[in-house]
Amino acid sequence: MDAPQSYTYMLAKDLLEEKVHVINKRYPFFVAGVDGKDQDAIVAILSDIYGADTLISVMTGDGKAYQINLGMVFLEGENNTLGFAPEKNLTDHKRFDFSDLEEILIRLRGEGGCEWDRAQTHESIRINLIEEAYELVEAIDLANKAMLLEETGDVLLQAVFHTQIAKESGEFNYSDMLSAVCKKLIDRHTHIFGTNHANNAEEALNFWTEAKKKEKKYLSSADAMDRVPKNLPALLYAEKIQKIAKKVNFDFPNAKECYAKVLEELDEFNGAVSDENRVEEAGDILFSVVNLLRFYKIEPEMALADANRKFFKRFDKVEQIVTSRGKKMEECTLDELDEIWNSDEVRSAK
Q: Which of 130, 290, 305, 320 lies most in the core, judged by the most C-beta atoms within 10 Å?
């Protein structure tokens, strides 16, 4: 990296007043007018950007100068200045920001970069985003903070990867991508950035939906349904198109009638006259169950995922018990397995 040709200078009071801190670490940075009373707040902000163990220059108000780690600064008096030299290599960074991620992707995709990264296209990595999204959901379900941190970054990486590919082909760039998402957030939160007023989360969602409808210029409710991504998981897709139908009152009046529809579909499945008819009725059962769960504000995709996890944990426990008795699963009768399955030891399996 060539030596920087400019620097950034900021007063401590301005740094403290800013809500968002964007500092280009590729240039020298000086923050002046640091008083002892503001030191802790200033150091906290800069440590988040540079890392507490970053070596900095300190010029005190009375003309003294020394170097020390940012996290060890102790100042007295007024008009002290803290100076940060740019780190020469990415590998020297103590902390990273979005611009670093962008630079890394440029390096990986550029001449002399990683052969695998250079070979990827929008199409070749599209499944990665789905996998990373599901891993993030799992981290949330497990309330695993370390996993949540990692998987949130992995999802962001996929978005940046696609943006870098788009930039190289002239589709759009990082500024376009960030501008589009910021504009969407502003335009759809009319109760925050506009004249509408929301008293609760439901009203806020309604304003978002109305703003989205104007933005997308839906020709009809069917048009809105048609624009729901077809590659969504089937349960999630069913829930989304049902919600669109509900907005024009094409819905059951209450959960009781919805439950009756589930029973009706079960009877029709039981009376199916052919394999083809049975497949059709099976789909109707699932669709009607999604309808029922929606009335109780239960997300069917998440509910089934929880049921899958519960089944696996209990099945695993049953197999452990069977093995501890010197047998194999296939050697047990269904009654034996059912008895173990319903035991307190298995039912409490976590």
A: 290
